[in-house]
Amino acid sequence: MKPLFKYPQWLVVSVAVAVLAIASGTTNAASAKKIDREADAALASLYESTPVAKKLASQAEAILVFPSIVKAGLLVGGQYGEGVMRQNGKSSGYFRSSAVSYGLQAGAQSFGYVMFLMTPDALEYLKSSDGWEIGVGPTVVVVDEGIAKSLTTSTAKDDIYAFIFGQKGLMAGLGLQGSRIKKIDVDD
After folding, report:
1. Cβ-proximal residues to 109 (8 Å cutoff; 6+ apart), any chain
2. Which of 79, 84, 134, 160 could form a disulfide with 71 if both were Cys (CB 3.0 to 4.6 A apart)?
C-alpha cells in the first residue's frame, strides 16, 4: 500500500502534538506587565502605520490587542497568543486567542492583531460568552490596506474592526476565522 503522505509518520505526529499544545493553551500565561508592555508597543506601531486605527480607537467601546500570535502547521496546524482588553485606556481583562486547523498547510509565522469593539453589544457578547469564536456572533471586518484607505469614523458601522499586522515567517493563508478568544487569569 502506498503511503498517503510523503512525510514520515513520526514527523507528522510530532508536529501535530506540538501544534495542538500551542493551540490548546497549555503554555503558562505571560505576566500582565509583559502583555501590557507588548500591547502598548503593538498599538503604537499600528497607529503610526494606519492612522484610521487611531481614529477608531477614540470611538471604540473596547480594544482587544493580541501583540503576538504564533501559527504553525504541517497538515495539522494551530495558533496561540495572549492579549489584553483596553477600555478607556486601561487594561480590563486578559485573553488568549487559539485555533486548530487541518488541511494542505505547511510553515510557521507570527503576527499580531487588534480588534476594535465598536458597539456595546459586541463588548457584552465577548464578556458574557465563555469563549468566543470569531465568525460566530458579532460581525467582524478584517481591515486591509484597501479598506483602511476608505474607512472613516463616520462610515464605520460594523460591530468589530480587526487589523492584522507584523507578519513574519511563511505560511499559506492568514485569517482570524475560527479563532477562539477566551478570558484568562494572569499573574501581575
Report:
1. 70, 71, 72, 167, 168, 169, 170, 171, 174
2. 79
Which tens digit of pLDDT belongs to each residue from 123-172? 888 888 777 666 545 556 666 554 444 444 444 457 788 888 887 877 65
DSSP assignment string, 60-78: -SEEEEEEEEEEEEEEEEE
Which amino acid is present at 48?
Answer: E
CA–CA distance, 134 with 30 (Å, rounded to integer) = 23
Contacts for 16 with CB less than 8 Å, ≥ 6 apart: 74, 75, 76
* Structural contact between residues 77 and 100, judged by C-beta atoms closer than 8 angstroms: yes
Contact 27, 75 (CB under 8 A): no
- Helix, strand, or coil (residue 40): helix
CA distance 163 to 46: 8
Q: What is the pTM of this model?
A: 0.75
Name residue 95's beta-bridge partners: 83, 183
Q: Which amino acid is at 185?
A: D
Cell numbers given for 117:
469593539
Q: Rounded CA gap, 148 and 102, in Å?
A: 31
Bridge-based pairing state of the strands 62-87 and 90-117: antiparallel
3-state class (DSSP) for residue 102:
strand
Q: Which three cell numbers stand for residue 43?
A: 498599538
